[in-house]
Amino acid sequence: MYESLSQIILFSSILGMGIILFKKIPVLVLLPEQNKESISFKRNFLNIEKKVKKLHLIKFNYFEKFLVNSFSKSKTLISKTDEPIKKNKQKNNLSDNYWGKIKNQK
Question: pTM score, two decimals?
Answer without folding.
Answer: 0.31
